[in-house]
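ok, trying the design again with the full structure, not the truncated one.
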């Protein structure tokens, strides 16, 4: 009798275990972007890119540990501000219990969220935060883009070698890590190449600063042949516009923060012929890029920028790792991310020991109000 009972119980147990493994489940994935505020176009593009990767994942139907998993995105708005970013990070982790975080966009906001994600052991991947410190926070923090020491060198070399510039000036927001870091890396590279830094001017909080004429007037007296402005699009556009207004006609250059249709909308003619480094060009002929550009344009009625593309890539890196781990265990997903070695839209991704991918950059210019591909630069 006892034996029969044991057998029966075992069968029952096995049966319920199998039943558990079938069925489906919903998994929440956080997306933290600047959906409002001075960098809102970054947020909208990033959200679109993430949503597209999730829609494709859900449509394909994936099983994790025997269960069909549907991903539900939970979006949070940083408003472009570190304090808000930290709050929304806490909410997504503690209240919504997200399995991971895609975000943030701007380095200053990623730096506010990363310690919270690291402490909670929630894997986080920033699509676009390029400041080196972001992934140094800990082993749960990844990014899908190159870092600023490389980006700064790309523009320094482009200015010195390709454009033949020798006298550079800088004007940037010294109140946050991205702008400050990129300015440092550019300066170091340009000087190492043999160029001279003839002037350096700063301001704090580009969200609130609208008048750059005093700094530009100072810069003008030093007669530079190149001005590097590693700021986000709003400040960058206003600086170029005001330079034209005070008769400072000189070549401008910048970084990925310029990537917004608003650069041209705000700056008009003044931003024509500016050069900037970026992660992606829609004109890249690789089939994976052309398919993405076509699908994204059909879905959202806009061409994808670097923000959309990297948010798409970052989400895929996370979801691929989840499938590879065949588990919803956050530590296993983190470990699987480390072994990523695939072709994505913005290039191949393999991580170095600091969880940074080694990737190429592109140099773009503005011609007739449109972004135009100039060249690709390998690390
Ligand atoms: N790299 C920027 C940062 O770290 C964010 C950014 C990326 C903005 C790409 C525009 C395009 O703050």
């Amino acid at each position: 009798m006892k034996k029969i009972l044991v057998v029966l119980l075992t069968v029952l147990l096995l049966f319920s275990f199998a039943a558990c493994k079938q069925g489906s489940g919903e998994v929440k994935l956080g997306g933290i972007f600047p959906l409002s505020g001075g960098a809102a176009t970054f947020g909208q593009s990033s959200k679109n890119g993430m949503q597209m990767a999730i829609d494709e994942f859900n449509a394909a139907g994936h099983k994790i540990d025997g269960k069909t998993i549907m991903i539900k995105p939970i979006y949070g708005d940083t408003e472009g501000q570190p304090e808000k970013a930290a709050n929304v990070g806490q909410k997504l982790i503690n209240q919504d219990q997200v399995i991971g975080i895609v975000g943030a966009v701007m380095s200053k906001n990623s730096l506010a969220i990363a310690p919270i994600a690291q402490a909670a052991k929630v894997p986080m991947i920033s699509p676009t935060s390029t400041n080196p410190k972001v992934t140094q926070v800990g082993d749960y923090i990844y990014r899908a883009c190159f870092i600023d020491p490389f980006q700064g060198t790309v523009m320094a070399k482009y200015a010195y070698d390709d454009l033949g510039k020798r006298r550079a000036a800088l004007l940037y927001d010294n109140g946050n890590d991205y702008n400050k870091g990129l300015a440092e890396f550019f300066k170091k590279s340009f000087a190492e190449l043999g160029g001279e830094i003839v002037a350096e001017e700063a301001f704090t909080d580009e969200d609130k600063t609208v008048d750059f004429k005093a700094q530009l007037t100072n810069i003008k007296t030093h007669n530079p042949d190149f001005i590097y402005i590693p700021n986000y699009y709003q400040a960058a556009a206003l600086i170029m516009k005001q330079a034209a207004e005070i008769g400072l006609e000189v070549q401008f250059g910048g970084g990925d923060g310029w990537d917004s249709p608003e650069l041209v909308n705000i700056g008009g003619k003044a931003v024509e012929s500016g050069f900037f480094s970026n992660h992606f060009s829609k004109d890249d002929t690789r089939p994976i890029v052309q398919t993405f550009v076509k699908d994204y344009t059909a879905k959202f009625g806009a061409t994808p920028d670097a923000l959309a593309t990297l948010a798409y890539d970052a989400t895929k890196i996370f979801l691929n790792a989840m499938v590879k781990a065949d588990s919803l265990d956050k530590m296993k997903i983190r470990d699987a991310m480390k072994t990523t070695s695939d072709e994505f839209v913005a290039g191949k991704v393999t991580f170095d020991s600091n969880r940074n991918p080694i990737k190429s950059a592109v140099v773009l210019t503005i011609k007739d109000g449109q972004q135009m591909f100039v060249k690709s630069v390998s690390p």
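Keeping the full-length input from now on. Residues 11-21 have pLDDT under 50 and may be disordered.
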